[in-house]
Request: fold
Amino acid sequence: MADELLLTVGECARRLGFGKSLVYRFIRRGELRSLRIGGARRVLVAELDEFVTRLRERRDEEAVVV
Reply:
């Protein structure tokens, strides 16, 4: 749904093409911010978008280093 504000870890993993364990690792490291709502872990769509932007920037910086 296009108007979603929060995603589950599984939904984030599918959107990123990663496994859930890797998404949890990014969360533990503080690279991907998340919310705990009751017993559920959720990620804001805007935060996922920012995370992807940071990954792209990091990739671009690494590609420039010779």
